[in-house]
Amino acid sequence: MNNDEAKKILALYRPGTADRTDPVFAAALERVKPFPPQGRWQDKPDPELARWFQEHCASYVSIRTKFLSIPVPPSLKDHILAECKIPSVRIIPFRPMVILCAAAVVALCLGLIALFWPSHGRQDDFNTYRNRMARTAMQLYGMELHSHDLQSINTFLAGRNAPADYVLPDGVLKAQPVGCKVLHWQGQPVSMICFHSGLPLAANRTTDLWLFVIDQSSLRDGPAASSPVVAPVMQLTTATWTRNGKTYVLAAAGDEAFLRKYL
Amino acid sequence: MAGAIFESLVKQYYEPLYKFAFSLARNEADACDLTQQTFFVWATKGHQLHDPNKTKTWLFTTLYRTFLQSRRRETRFPHEPLHETDEELPATHPVLADHLDWQQVLKALGRVEEHYQAPVALFYLEECSYREIAEILEVPIGTVKSRLARGLGQLKRILTQTGTLGRIGKAQHE
Q1: Which domain holds residue B42?
Q2: How many angstroms away from the CA of B142 is the closest CA of chain A?
């Protein structure tokens, strides 16, 4: 192995990892060891190669440190645990017939629970959806399209297979469109259209009104009413309604009176 | 019991997954969404994984798939075996990243060609073996190495420019 070959291999070497035990790297590493493994050099070490390797390792550690210092939102873990609950399952080895009977009983119980208490314990319900959309609005999200033109926004959304044939409330037409983004809920596309009411905005903000549109069929228990139902969610006020197969959530950074101006 | 296992899994992996997601999406909301969606998929389909040793790879693969889906990146990238890219393997530049912060490094990663970004992020972020990176990206190891060679070359060239410019700017400011 010559120096060029060793360099090509060691360019992908990560110090401090299991790479050192990889036979491909191990052979190249022999070329930069300060002392030969068996008391004698098979190939004479090159000081230039050793210096290059030192720089490579220092560069790796330095860049890795930057990646590792990406800050993680402190509430993320709690959000995940709140939204992704899985049912407790206890697995006990039984004979097949017993398992079948137990499965039948469990299915019956689940059916009864679903019939009489449909929203209990489910994390895919409308409230969770609405909370998720409100939280997205409150975060410093990045819009995928910045535009004041609704036609451009709708073309973009349609191109991403997100709902684009929505109907805006008359009030929202008074606000200025700012852009849009496609989100996903349970694997289904959600159109997020961002507006600015014209009022002064908080720091780092360009929007204070957000409309989320999803196909009604993507929600298990979305609102059936076509007239908006207003409810506070976190620091926002939301209005929700369903019309022509689409479920809408309009979120506003303001109180109910502010929101109602845009309905 | 299942809830406790899930909580332990979240505790162990949510930070590296978020950092990988942030490296790809480069904004907090999308990175949060990707991380949450990954664990949601785990909560609904994780029981299908029979080998617990594959959990880490499964989670990273799921996140990466979700990212690609969210970007409508349905076309597969061509495989480029290592021997085809020998001439493009990077030379290591002096350490300039010391003068940069993580935002600048991620900004530089964002300027790297898109299909090299995930391997580069995994190269630096998570101590995955090359075999694991290949499983996460669902490509052969040779393709991982060729993409890495090109991606690292691009990243280091960009960082060299950024670091040099940053130092010149700083010197002028001082």
Answers
A1: 2-70
A2: 12
